[in-house]
Design a protein that fits this description.
The chain has helices spanning 47-53, 70-77, 88-99, 112-117, 130-137, 146-164, 168-174, 212-221, 241-247, 254-264, 274-287, and strands at 2-10, 18-27, 30-38, 81-84, 108-111, 201-205, 225-226, 236-239, 270-273. By secondary structure, it is α/β, with parallel strands linked by helices. Helix 5 (130-137) crosses helix 6. 44% of the residues are buried.
């Protein structure tokens, strides 16, 4: 059975600002082909993103833009089962296609994080980030390099298939079913316990286009607990689109600044703008 694993890195909080893509094709449990490229996002680089993946404006000078690698993406992805770890990469790809007014590719998506949560009890409700899952399976890789992350997501799938005996088609069905109640029923319930992001803590900052109460309901529906402030337990911060466009890295809110400080110290926090957060929620509901 074949599948393709994909990962992207972005230049800033706009998920369409892809600056690196990694693809890994697997056949019968073996890595058959891989491809990676820096991408010119035609957008600015935020310092916090640079601190995560190390890619900056100079690195992408002369690199192809997203629309210029469409043929390669199509060769790898069209008609395939495409694996990404959580929906971030899937949404980034979708947003980049929209940015360049390209027709979306015909692919079937499989979330390796959802697979991991249904395979290993220790990451059923929390700790299902790519780095931690790879620790569980004993796979070493260079995190935040797109190709390395893509191959790591692929390895998660291979390990899950080996442990459970469930093949790719079986996993496409299984991820739409609830996590077994015996995985860990003692953890305090925050948000929808069957949501994809259960165990993660989200913080809103800035002026949102929708009421904060409504935004919180959306987040809780896919499992997020809502935090009042940024702490060492925070995993996602959502910034109002108006603010992120207006500020472009200047005069950020205290929550935004604290999140970036924690990221610089190694904490795994993602920063999204409001529209990408809504897309993330919509995509999560589609696969439940």
């Amino acid at each position: 059975m074949e599948f393709v694993a994909i990962d992207v890195e972005t230049a800033n909080a706009d998920m369409a600002s892809i600056c690196q893509i990694g693809l890994a094709k697997y056949k019968d449990g073996i890595l058959e082909e891989e491809w990676s490229s820096l991408i010119d996002p035609e957008d600015y680089f935020d310092g916090i993103n640079i601190s995560i993946h190390g890619i900056n404006e100079k690195d992408v000078r002369g690199a192809p833009t997203f629309n210029e690698v469409l043929l390669k993406l199509s060769e790898f992805m069209s008609g395939s089962v495409c694996v990404s770890h959580t929906h971030f990469d899937r949404v980034s790809i979708r947003k980049a296609f929209e940015k360049y007014s390209l027709n979306q590719l015909d692919v079937t998506w499989l979330d390796s994080a959802r697979v991991a949560r249904r395979t290993w009890e220790e990451c059923a409700w929390s700790g299902y980030g790519l780095a931690n899952v790879c620790k569980i399976i004993g796979y070493e890789f260079k995190h935040h390099d797109a190709l390395e992350d893509a191959k790591a997501a692929g390895q998660v799938i291979l390990s899950a298939m080996n442990k459970t005996g469930i093949d790719i088609n079986g996993w496409l069905y299984r991820v739409g079913k609830p996590i077994g109640s015996d995985s860990n029923g003692s953890i305090q319930r925050e948000g929808n316990s069957e949501g994809e992001f259960y165990g993660e803590i989200l913080v809103f900052t800035g002026a949102l286009l929708i009421p904060r109460v409504e935004a919180a309901k959306l987040a809780a529906s896919v499992g997020f607990a809502i935090g009042a402030g940024v702490t060492k337990k925070t995993t996602l911060i959502v910034v109002g689109d108006q603010d992120i466009t207006k500020l472009a890295g200047k005069k950020k809110s205290s929550k935004h600044i604290k999140a970036e400080d924690l990221i610089s110290k190694g904490q795994n926090i993602r920063i999204l703008q409001e529209s990408d957060f809504k897309e993330l929620v919509a995509q999560s509901h589609q696969v439940v």
